[in-house]
Request: fold
Amino acid sequence: MIARIAIWSIADSFVDLGELREQLRDEWLPALAATPGLELAVVVSDTLGDRWGIVSVWESEPGELPGLDTIGRHPAIDDEFVVEAVGAGDYFDGRLAGRGRLTGGEELLRLYLWRLDERARATLPELRLYVEEEALDAFTDVEGLRYKAWLSDEPAGGWPRYGAFCLWETPAAAQGPQPSRSPQLIGRGPDIIEEFDVEATVVGIDE
Reply:
């Protein structure tokens, strides 16, 4: 699977958050839910930073997402990662495949990323083994965690990256204790931690 993270700055764009929310409700949710190959999409916003984005997980290569031309510019962040594993919580239990849902609550998406440079104590293969043998089980019953995807990429000529994104029921749940040993294994905290409000979630169509 592949994860795509697309985040726009809308501080001086042609649309504001209110207009984007209207289009999300009226047009994008049905279109997202019917997008071939889409496993999960989380539509996010950051009111303080005037940002809007979509974090999506795909069966293979990411396809086209509806509404990406509305803002009138390319995303400020447009990144793709291999999904090493997904788990945690009961996100998919009783799901209605091919349906989108406006959140209407306090859900929060948090993104963590490390650059595995010369300071990192663990290599990407070692971290993959940690996820497979320990982390997946450790995060199964974390209270308030609805979904977690572990990510990696190995750019040509650059340092590998490793990280995760987590979908939380509330900001308070995201502040609770977590069983991650990634900082301990790597030897430092993440190089990037981003938090976004969740506007909507979409689960793709079951085959």
User: Anything to note?
Assistant: Confidence is low (pLDDT under 50) at residues 92-97. The chain has four helices and nine strands. The two ends are 15 Å apart (CA to CA). The longest strand covers residues 192-203.
